[in-house]
Design brief:
- The structure holds two protein chains of two kinds.
- By secondary structure, chain A is mainly α.
- Chain B folds into two domains: about 120 residues, no CATH class; about 240 residues, MetI-like (MetI-like fold).
- In chain B, about 75% of the residues lie in helices and about 0% in strands.
- Chain B has 16 helices and no strands.
- The chains are: A mainly alpha, B mainly alpha.
- Chains A and B meet through helix 1, helix 2, helix 4, helix 5 and helix 6 of A and helix 2, helix 3, helix 4, helix 6 and helix 7 of B.
């Protein structure tokens, strides 16, 4: 596309301006997290340019290993989100395979139910599931949160994976069956490897969702520092240390590091997933 | 795969005693394997619940147990069903594959929806029926009226601006050499939790009394112009708009990426033809580009709309719903976990469901038309 030089300059300037607006708040937070407590409270973060020598890792040390122990929360968040990604994907993939390539009574109505459940906001489940958890003494365990995340992500995962798995070529399935492969073998050795792009797309989506989630973890895991996840602990920090910006900013960055790295590394899959409709109901 | 054992167990027996022996062995093994699997999994659960081990070890065990356990359950279920006679195997196997998904969806979504509907007509402890009282409360209580008004603001302002900015940036970045880097930086907030985003923006909106130096971006900026300082988050109604800004900041990247992909699908010939006819860039945008990607614009807008209707984390992290910033989901959370009024909490959840349903229904229809 041919454009005059002035209009191209204008467009570039606008784009740079927008990018600055979008990134400056995060940059401010990042810089603040390395400033000493006294400086944070008395001067704005951009004054740091005159005083680069004062930057320190002390805030991170304190927030990770001090009384707030966010290192522990970081581990908990890992323990929540990795199984909370893998479990629903596995369950959804099995179901999607059955919906696509197996014959059984009630198939149509069950699939329609799955699609209909895409609608339900998870808020509606909190009270009944919590009551059931309390009754069987499951609340506050990792298993409780994994299964809840699985439940809330499963309709979408099944729907997306069905769209992909049902499009695999019929000949492959038939030749596997002629070679004497059972459904289980066809699924584990053929369908799962062939579906890697779809699995990866949903995995990164579900990972960001479970890592960043507050509501599900807050409800089913609770705020006990021993088990609580990063988002819960950060909310606690806002409440108890709302004015201690040097700790809040460092804590916020601890919670952002992993999702941002995963996001940057796997952006391609994430975009592909978004385009395939990975949008949670 | 347990091919050799399965050959052994399903091979033809040689006599009545051998046949009985085979049957017995088959039955025993079929029972033992699931039982052992269950014991292993339960031991893992008990370890995780009671262990006093270092946190890192507990976390590692949890991950292996959770991921491995799920795979093991499927493997064992399939293994067991493969012991059955062929007719039964064909009947049961599909339900081994699809059953767990259906069971989990039933437990976590289907049954809770029905239960919440029932609870919404009962009192705080679900003891007595109280008819429509919870719904009457929901539409007359002043907090709730504020929440509904705010949710409408979130819906209209948040959806329009996130989609609009997304479209504008997609069009601009498409014509700029800074395409990739710019898009990544604007997309990045999608990876950040609303709680993290809340802290980032708390810092932008931070307010100190006039005598103290301002450390928040907004008050410093206005201070340099001789305005303020203003206590942004406690001032109605601007605080709700400032919270909506956070959503726009986080969601514009999503709109930009989806709409950017749709833009690539607009045929160049169409644009060239328009240019030859003397259309300005703005006219091309209005008359050709927007109509061509309209279905995608609707999809993006409905997705953001759903998010705004259910918005919770931002409000919870920024103001806890104080200073007139309450929304339906934050009120619902309070009814459930602060006042323990399950009736009102459930009624609010049902209202959320009803509010979201038409939007998602519309969205699903457009998914379907896109797939054809």
């Amino acid at each position: 596309m041919k454009q005059s030089r002035s209009s191209s300059f204008l467009i570039n300037a606008t784009v740079i301006g927008l990018v600055l607006i979008w990134t400056i708040p995060t940059v401010g937070l990042f810089i603040t997290s390395f400033r000493p407590e006294s400086a944070v409270a008395t001067s704005a973060w951009w004054t740091v340019l005159g005083d680069l020598g004062s930057l320190t890792f002390a805030n991170y040390e304190e927030v990770l290993f001090g009384g707030d122990g966010l290192a522990n929360a970081f581990l908990n968040t890992l323990a929540v989100s990795i199984p909370a990604v893998v479990i629903p994907i596995l369950i959804a993939a099995f179901a999607a395979y059955a919906f696509a390539w197996m014959k059984f009574p009630g198939k149509r109505i069950l699939f329609i139910t799955v699609v209909a459940l895409l609608v339900v906001p998870l808020q509606i489940s909190l009270i009944p599931v919590l009551q059931a958890y309390v009754a069987i003494d499951l609340n506050g365990t990792f298993l409780a949160v994994w299964l809840a995340h699985a439940g809330f992500g499963l309709a979408l995962a099944t729907y997306l994976l069905y769209n992909y798995i049902s499009q695999l070529p019929r000949e492959i399935m038939e030749s596997a069956s002629l070679d004497g492969a059972s459904h289980f073998q066809t699924f584990t050795r053929l369908v799962l490897p062939l579906s890697t792009p779809a699995l990866a797309s949903f995995a990164i989506f579900q990972f960001l969702w479970t890592w960043n989630d507050l509501l599900v973890a807050q409800t089913f895991l609770g705020t006990d520092p021993e088990v609580a996840v990063l988002t819960s602990r950060l909310i606690g920090l806002i409440g108890s240390r709302g004015t201690e910006w040097h700790l809040l900013t460092a804590g916020a960055f601890v919670s952002m590091v992993l999702p941002v790295v995963v996001f940057l590394a796997l952006q391609r899959y994430f975009v592909r997933g978004l385009l395939a409709g990975s949008v949670k109901g | 795969m347990a091919l050799s054992t399965s050959d052994f167990l399903t091979s033809e027996p040689r006599g009545p005693i051998a046949a009985f022996g085979t049957f017995l062995a088959r039955a025993l093994v079929s029972l033992a394997v699931p039982v052992i699997a269950f014991i292993v999994l339960y031991a893992g659960f008990v370890f995780l619940r009671d262990a006093d081990a270092p946190r890192i070890l507990v976390v590692l065990v949890a991950i292996v147990w959770g991921v491995g356990g799920t795979a093991l359950l499927y493997y064992v279920a399939n293994w067991t069903v493969e012991r059955f006679p062929a007719t039964w195997r064909h009947r049961i196997l599909p339900f081994v594959f699809v059953g767990p998904a259906i069971a989990i969806l039933a437990f976590y979504l289907l049954i809770p929806t029905v239960l919440s509907f029932i609870y919404s007509f009962k009192d705080a402890t679900s003891a007595d029926w109280i008819g429509l009282e919870n719904y009457i409360y929901a539409f007359t209580n002043p907090d709730m009226v504020t929440a509904i008004r705010n949710n409408v603001l979130w819906l209209v302002v948040g959806t329009t601006l996130a989609t609009g900015f997304g479209l504008a940036i997609a069009v601009l970045a498409d014509r700029s050499r800074l395409d990739r880097a710019a898009k990544t930086l604007i997309f990045l907030p999608m990876a950040i939790s609303f709680v993290g985003a809340g802290i980032i923006w708390q810092f932008v909106y931070s307010f100190q009394p006039a005598v103290a130096p301002q450390i928040g971006l907004l008050n410093s900026f206005l201070g340099a112009l001789g305005i303020g300082p203003i206590s942004w988050l406690t001032t109605e109604p601007i605080n709700t708009f400032l919270l909506i800004v956070i959503l726009i900041w986080a969601q514009t990247g999503f709109a930009m990426v989806i709409l950017g992909a749709a833009l690539k699908g607009v045929p160049d010939e169409l644009l060239e033809a328009g240019r030859i006819d003397g259309a300005t860039e703005w006219q091309l945008f209005r008359r050709i580009i927007v109509p061509a990607i309209w279905p995608t614009i609707i999809t993006v807008a409905t997705t953001v709309a759903i998010l705004t209707l259910k918005i919770f984390d931002i409000v919870f992290a920024m103001t806890q719903g104080n200073f007139g910033t309450e929304v339906i989901a934050s009120l619902q959370f309070k009814q459930m976990f602060v006042y323990f009024d399950y009736g009102r909490g459930s009624a609010l959840a049902i209202i959320l469901l009803v509010a979201v349903t038409p939007v998602i229904w519309y969205n699903l229809r457009s998914f379907r038309s896109r797939e054809i």
